[in-house]
Amino acid sequence: MGAQPSTIAYKKNALRADHGEPLVLFHGSKEKFSSFSHRPGGDQGFHFGSEAQARMRAGSSGWLYSVVLNVSRIKNAKDTGSWGKDTFRRARAAGYDCIRYLNRYEGVTTERINELSANGTLSKLDSLSDKDFLRVVPEADYSYAVFDPGLIHVLSVESLSPEASVASTMLP
């Protein structure tokens, strides 16, 4: 990705990386779209994480969105694989902008899954605390489920299709 957060406009409440710059996160999708919006029947959260997580989600012919999130009230939660609409509704009603969770599913390599399966650890992962999970799967990374599409600043959209003639679209 060529987007440098220091060269783009971003809001005062942008989520920050450890070095102080806005944290660039990624969203993977099978579909290309011009803006994030809620779909009827959706879980009411837009999920963002590492590039590896987003690429896993999008597949080889999907779309990769790089974004900065303008969030300030973050609820930490354990990844259960599926929370349902009530989890998002309660967090939003409590004044949170998003839910942050250690992603236990996307971004974990096939090699790591095979290793954990071979040593008998794979079936025990869901019972681990986040701290213990990171000891076993050190490449795991945090993801964010944002409730309000107005808090999402899209930096660029990249086609992951090998046939794409224009790989990336930079946005203002």
TrEMBL record:
Domain of life (superkingdom): Bacteria
Protein name: RES domain-containing protein
Source organism per UniProt: Thalassospira xiamenensis
Source lineage: Bacteria, Pseudomonadati, Pseudomonadota, Alphaproteobacteria, Rhodospirillales
